[in-house]
Design a protein that fits this description.
Length: about 450
């Protein structure tokens, strides 16, 4: 029996949806912050190398497994590589569950700042603003936290409920163009600011004396997170791609768009920060600080057209987060549809509700509920939220990514991978041999290095 699988309505729609999954809080919240922490230049260069040498080949590997089998993570790995590999898919589904649960909390904050900046833009920015206090108030307010993340979860559920075509693809078609436009407006405004020269210098002028191995591993770990790799998201999205499309071109476009947006986001934030005297010294502590404490105020004080751009910016963050949360939920939902033969509607509501239980706990772990704020499973990672993030970034994704690349590289017949990647037409620059080398040797060695660093040297990439 062959039931008909829903497909993307066009190649463009697929690329938008997959790019939407990739572009998210990773680009806007994590990347600028880790670039700052690692002193820019050299770190950015290493990151670009990781994206090309490890991210791009694994992106192709995940897409081809999905497209070949037309199944979601568990079934796809089982069929393409072998029965035991179904467990890697199950691990991925669990990782999706965990990541979505805490990601929704930060996504909820973007809603808060969207409402807040709308309010300021219309009614004026307070002269004696205490932005640190505002954020601390939000963090410790359990009711607000759970309402915001719950709202975001409902939005995510509503999109996935309507399926691949009517929900996910349609949302991506609306959100991504809006996101690109807002990003460009912000970029123009940022480049006109005084600090932009210094910002560009900081980002693009490598200084290798600043770089240590921890930074290299952090760049690599982030390459996984930002491209949505290591847990089967791209397997699932690939499974909705029609046979005659070139996966190589698609993978290339997704990777380029994701990288460009991350760099633009960084240019925007650093231009603002370098424009204000004394600001670079203040922005240090946390990633939360840059996005939700330093920036809101600066929009009103230094950014040209900040009154319009501030709400636009937080809308952008919310839209980027939404196209990522739907991809995370889709991994879980497609598991219940394919493996447990559930209806999409039921699978979506059930998964959404179960994940929200964890979101609820994460949201309350910023001070609202001491037991959750002090919850410690990993040394030095206090709080339920930090625990989940640490587990996903340091364990779930690297381990999943390692197993997927080893499976596709060594245990899948290379005639199969060649048929998927080259059979449907591939661009001139692509070489199946080079790809196979990357998937067999470069990517596993790099990912193994992350795991070794975490296990033996106690490094932390969350
Ligand atoms: N890539 C997204 C971001 O940068 C987050 C994300 C979506 C993700 N799906 C994923 C991360 C799957 C890891 C795995 O924000």
């Amino acid at each position: 029996m062959k039931d008909r699988r829903e497909n993307w309505s066009s190649n463009f729609g697929f690329i938008l949806a997959a790019t939407g999954s990739a572009i998210g809080l990773g680009n806007l919240w994590k990347f600028p912050f880790i670039t700052w922490k690692n002193d820019g230049g050299a770190f950015v260069l290493i990151y670009l190398i990781c994206i090309i040498a490890v991210g791009l080949p694994i992106m192709m590997a995940e897409l081809l497994v999905g497209r070949k089998t037309q199944k979601s993570a568990v079934g796809a790995l089982r069929e393409a590589i072998g029965p035991a590999w179904g467990w890697v898919g199950t691990w991925g589904v669990m990782a999706g569950f965990v990541i979505l649960s805490y990601y929704a909390v930060v996504a909820g904050w973007s809603l808060f700042y969207l409402f807040q900046t709308l309010n300021w833009s219309f009614f004026g920015f307070p002269t004696q603003a205490n932005m640190g206090g505002l954020f601390a108030g939000l963090a410790a307010n359990g009711l607000l936290q759970t309402t915001l993340s719950g709202t975001f979860m409902l939005l995510t559920v509503a999109v996935v409920f309507f399926g691949v075509h009517g929900g996910i693809e349609r949302t991506a078609r609306l959100c991504l163009p809006a996101l690109f436009v807002i990003m460009l407006l912000l970029l123009f405004s940022a480049l006109s600011m005084e600090g932009s020269g210094e910002a560009l210098n900081f980002i693009f002028r490598p200084n290798f004396s600043e770089l240590d191995t921890a930074a290299i591993l952090e760049a690599l770990g982030h390459a996984f997170f930002t491209l949505s790799l290591g847990m089967g998201t791209m397997i699932v999205y690939g499974s909705y791609v029609a046979r005659e499309r070139s996966l190589v071109n698609a993978a290339g476009s997704i990777v380029i768009l994701d990288t460009v947006i991350a760099l633009i986001a960084t240019i925007i934030m650093f231009s603002v920060i370098f424009t204000v005297p004394g600001m670079p010294e203040q922005v240090d502590g946390s990633s939360v600080g840059m996005l939700f404490i330093s920036l809101p105020q600066l929009f009103y004080e230094v950014v040209p057209f900040g009154v319009v751009l501030a709400p636009a910016f937080y809308l952008l963050v919310a839209l980027a987060a939404l196209t990522s949360t739907i991809s995370l939920l889709e991994v879980v939902v497609s598991y219940f549809i394919d493996q447990r033969k559930m209806e999409r509607s039921r699978a979506t509501l059930l998964s959404g509700a179960c994940i929200y239980i964890f979101t609820f706990l994460s949201g309350l772990s910023f001070g609202a509920f001491p037991w959750l704020s002090n919850f410690e499973l990993f040394d030095g990672k206090a709080g339920f939220f930090a625990t989940m993030d640490h587990f996903a970034s340091n364990w779930a994704l690297p381990l999943g990514g390692l197993l997927i690349t080893l499976g596709v590289g060594w245990f899948m017949p290379s005639s199969d991978t060649e048929a998927e990647l080259v059979g449907s037409g591939s661009p001139g620059w692509f070489s199946h041999k080079a790809w196979l080398f990357a998937v067999r040797f470069i990517a596993p060695a790099a990912v193994a290095a992350i795991l070794i660093a975490v296990i033996f040297f106690g490094k932390d990439f969350s």
